[in-house]
Write a structure and sequence with these properties.
72% helix; Exocyst complex component 5; flat; single chain; exocytosis
């Protein structure tokens, strides 16, 4: 059976079990083994093994039944034990409840007994305390303080407690009967109070925090406790202010004593608040008053700087002090301290600021004009001046004689920087020193002063002078400086606009004053733009007048009808070829000759126009360049167009006119304005009508560039030909 038991090892496999049993049986192996296969022997072995297995199964079954019976018996025994334990637990719980009720009953009795004992003991203690106080009171009544507590310096704490109580009792006694004893008690009260304060002072000097805490606790019930705090505040400031910066010294002092105050006093937040109040009302206020009063009437600029610096440092110090325990409403407390120091200065701040800016701005302006040896011309006001201004805007004519500024624009970048710098400082001071409710109003008043000094007194005055300096359109060799005024005024206004956005807008962005500021700014811009437009328009008129003068003096009536066409080279400049083109060649062939020849008048006009175009580009920016160049180009084209219509043209003269117009067209390319170039392209096409063969005239008029033009205009150009009547060219337009 041991062998059989080995065959049942886990994991059990029936096939493997049979194979192993057969392998162990002699003659039960494979046919190729050492012994021959014996099936009868193997069958006997299987039968015997089956019997053994049956016996084994019976034995195991009996053992299982035995174990099951034993398990049932033990389960019944365990159930009986659990029932016994439950009954015992119920009995124990009942005993616990009875014990708890008994304990509660006893505790109630004990508490009641304690209350009774306390009710008896408290009057007894009071009686004992009263008897003790009466004994001490009797000593004061007799005038002989025999108790050791009053004579032993080591028992000053007990003496202080007794005398404090006696002092309270004495206050209730009638004065006529107990005046003497009340005086003695009061004297002893004040004497002990003085001794305690002296002891506290000595302990503070020695740095004995524990002793300071004990004495402060005793003094807490005395009237002199406040004096004790004052002594502490005074002593802790000794030697604390040795540097020149009182604000840094204050911050360092508060940082040092904060921990000590918490260890010594029972209400440290009250002591810290009183210390800070003492420093603000004495050290800081004296320092600030000294700094401000010495410059308030003698140097307003330095006074405003000092006020700004001192107020900034004080608020920064207050911000640092909020880190400490000063009570529940420390921000309001510190704000009141700052207001108490600066209120008298802040009330008059904005008036002094405005007066300083008004005086400073006028001085900067006058200093600049003095450096130019210029006496400011009064700009008229009132109905007459307004009438002149309206008339000038409508007619664009100069009123009164022009003045010679010798090229001076009367605009100074240095002056502008100084004004903007002063205003920037004023805005910073206004932001810091103004009450939040008055901040937008004060900032707006500063802005108005900037507008008055910079925009009116400087820029607007320069524009007026510039307008007066613009010569009339028929002036000869006129120097045009107004574009320089435009350039500098534009640069200055960019700086003005930047300060408006960076400095002023944050101060007024959430107030009704924003609309007023924007309206004022818009009004100033519109006023200056009107004068700039007038000046630029009159400057363009002068440019056109100068071109007209060049053409009138340099262009001759015979330039386009040369008497000797072979000697025509004398009348114009040669650029490339030395021989003029054939007068009978086709208009298309003329194109190659257009750039070869031009009259002296044309050369001078083109040179002048190129200089003015460059001047405009340097003086303007953005879209203003194209706008001004468009206007100049249109007027330039109109002048040339009208100028060409004053002459009659031979074939050679027409070719010369085409050459001139080609040069004007090349000059027009410098404008970089499509409209101007298109106008000169059309004019060039019109000039081809002066040289085209009569038979081809109708075809040319129907060309791409001329087909959309008014036929009267085409006819007018054809009438300029000397052969107009002889060749009967008018029939083409009938």
């Amino acid at each position: 059976m041991a062998t059989t038991a080995q065959l049942f090892e886990e994991p059990f496999d029936a096939d493997e079990y049979i194979e192993r049993l057969a392998w162990r049986t002699p003659g039960g192996g494979s046919k190729g083994g050492a012994e021959a296969f014996d099936p009868k022997r193997l069958l006997d072995e299987f039968e015997n093994h089956i019997e053994e297995l049956k016996q084994l199964d019976e034995r195991i079954q009996r053992r299982v039944e035995k174990l099951e019976h034993q398990c049932h018996r033990e389960a019944k025994e365990f159930a009986h034990k659990v029932q016994d334990l439950q009954r015992s637990n119920q009995v124990a719980f009942q005993h616990f409840q009875e014990l708890d009720e008994h304990i509660s009953y006893v505790a109630t009795k004990v508490c009641h007994l304690g209350d009774q004992l306390e009710g008896v003991n408290t009057p007894r203690q009071r009686a004992v305390e009263a008897q003790r106080l009466m004994t001490y009171f009797n000593e004061f009544l007799d005038g002989d303080l025999r108790s050791d507590v009053f004579n032993n310096p080591d028992k000053i704490k007990e003496a202080a407690d007794i005398i404090q109580k006696l002092h309270l009792i004495a206050q209730e006694l009638p004065f006529d009967r107990f005046a003497d004893v009340k005086a003695k008690i009061a004297s002893k009260y004040h004497d002990l109070e003085r001794q305690l304060i002296q002891e506290f002072t000595a302990a503070q000097r020695r740095g004995e925090i524990g002793r300071m805490r004990e004495v402060a606790a005793v003094l807490l019930h005395f009237k002199g406790y406040a004096h004790c705090v004052d002594v502490y505040i005074k002593q802790c400031q000794e030697g604390a202010y040795l540097r020149n910066d009182v604000f840094e010294d204050t911050a360092g002092l508060i940082q040092r004593v904060n921990k000590q105050v918490g260890e010594v006093f029972s209400s440290p937040e009250t002591v810290m608040a009183k210390l800070i109040q003492n420093i603000f009302e004495n050290k800081l206020q004296a320092h600030i008053k000294e700094k401000l009063d010495e410059t308030r009437h003698s140097d307003v600029e330095q006074y405003l700087k000092n006020l700004y610096d001192l107020y900034t440092k004080t608020t920064a110090l207050a911000t640092k002090l909020t880190e400490f325990n000063l009570g529940s409403d420390k921000h309001t407390f510190l704000s009141k301290l700052i207001k108490s120091i600066f209120s008298s200065y802040l009330e008059s701040y904005i008036d002094m600021e405005r007066e300083y800016l008004r005086t400073r701005g006028a001085m900067i302006l006058q200093r600049y004009y003095d450096s130019k040896n210029h006496q400011k011309r009064p700009i008229g006001t009132g109905s007459i001046q307004e009438l002149k201004e309206r008339f000038r805007q409508r007619t664009n004519l100069a009123l009164g004689p022009s003045i010679d500024t010798h090229g001076e624009t009367f605009l100074s970048p240095e002056l502008v920087v100084n004004l903007l710098q002063e205003t920037r400082h004023a805005f910073e001071r206004c932001h810091r020193l103004s009450d939040p409710s008055d901040l937008p109003k004060n900032a707006f008043s500063i802005f108005l002063l900037l507008v008055d000094h910079l925009c009116v007194e400087h820029i607007d005055y320069a524009l007026e002078i510039g307008l007066s300096a613009i010569p009339s359109s028929d002036a000869k060799n006129a120097n045009l400086y107004f574009l320089d005024v435009v350039q500098q005024a534009n640069s200055i206004f960019h700086l003005f606009d930047k300060q408006f956005n960076d400095q002023l807008m944050p101060l007024i962005s959430s107030s009704p004053k924003l609309a007023e500021c924007l309206h004022k700014k818009k009004e100033v811009i519109e006023q200056m733009e009107v004068k700039l437009d007038i000046g630029i328009d009159r400057t363009i008129n002068c440019m056109v007048g100068q071109m007209k003068h060049i053409l009138a003096t340099e262009q001759k009536k015979t330039d386009f009808r040369p008497e000797d066409e072979n000697n025509v080279m004398i009348q114009y400049t040669t650029v490339r070829d030395t021989r003029p083109p054939s007068p009978r060649s086709h208009a298309k062939q003329n194109k190659s000759a257009n750039a070869k020849f031009k009259h002296i008048a044309c050369s001078k006009v083109c040179a002048y126009v190129s200089r003015q175009v460059e001047h405009v580009r340097k003086s303007m920016d953005g879209k203003n360049v194209d706008t001004v160049l468009t206007e100049l180009g249109v007027r330039f084209h109109r002048l040339i167009h009208e100028h060409l219509q004053q002459y009659s043209y031979s074939s050679m003269g027409g070719m010369l006119a085409i050459c001139d117009v080609a040069e004007y067209r090349r000059c027009a390319k410098d404008f970089r304005v499509p409209l101007v170039l298109q106008l000169f392209d059309t004019l060039h096409a019109l000039c081809n009508l002066l040289v085209v063969a009569p038979d081809n005239l109708k075809q040319v008029c129907s060309g791409e560039q001329l087909t959309n033009l008014d036929r009267n205009l085409l006819h007018a150009f054809v009438q300029l030909r000397v052969d107009y009547r002889s060749a009967r060219l008018g029939r083409h337009f009938s």
